[in-house]
Specification:
It is a single chain. By secondary structure, the protein is α/β, with parallel strands linked by helices. It is 40% helix and 14% strand. Strands 7-6-5-8-9 form a 5-stranded parallel β-sheet. The chain has a 4-stranded parallel β-sheet with strand order 2-1-3-4, sandwiched between helices. Helix 1 (17-32) crosses helix 5. The chain is globular.
Length: 322
Amino acid sequence: MATPELRHMLRDDDLNHEEQKQVLELAIKFHKNRFYHQPFAGPQGIAVIFDKPSTRTRSSFSIGVAELGGYPLVIDKSGSQLGRGEPVADTARVLDRMAYGVVWRTFGQDRVEEMAKYSTHPVVNALTDEFHPCQILADFQTIAEHRGGVDNLKNQTIAYLGDAANNMSNSYLLGGAVAGMNVRVAGPYGYLPDPQIVADAEAIASETGGSILVTTDPNEAVAGADCVFTDTWVSMGEEAEYAIRSKPFWDYQVNAELMAKAKDDAIFQHCLPAYRGKEVTAEVIDGPQSVVWDEAGNRLHAQKALLTWLTGKARGDESLLV
């Protein structure tokens, strides 16, 4: 047994290159055998908290925890004291005495960081306004499965287009840098990533052999890319402002013309939900280069791998890491 080490997954660079690779290889094993490990047999409870609506995150974590032998305690904001203003620290102290981990889909990054501060079990960011690390693990698992394995992720060129100031852009920058990828993000002026996130990604890429490009030119981002990503142009809760907010992004729509500038065998991914005819055309998302359904399905396997890996670290159980 190794020395126990409490680890959380709050942002994509909470894993280093070798650790990310380990989690992704474990995810592929879970894809081949959904009951590869059952670290929560008992069943042990995992609190899965939702401050925002969800389909893929709720389904994948609920089913995933159950397949890991555990009990997913799903808590909605409206049904918890968090929704009535209870301090995060108080909720953390209570859950820490009952659950074996916390998964939280919430708003500010400070909330998951506060939860982790008071937790003696792993805390997983299931989405915040700043990062979406679980989605990126599923996306990279998908690339690995279509490109001959995790070792082939290094030096893949990925291009993300659209709102480059959102959580997906931040996570592609950090997660891609950790993987040693060539990461390109393109968005209009006013919707570019936080310079500190870019600086963090560049520092990581300098160690892993990857590269970072931030541009306002969608053609520059996509040229020769191995994988093209996009996301909705309007974040959750801003749908009423779609007509206004979408105006800067039309040049970044992923359509057949733009995909043709990527490699001939380039694949397309979208974290979903997608709005056909807006950030992506139906021709692309429903076409032969699209792997969005593999990507969505891999949320289950990647998150099970992450929970298993974090649990192995927390228990000092090396058998759960492979």
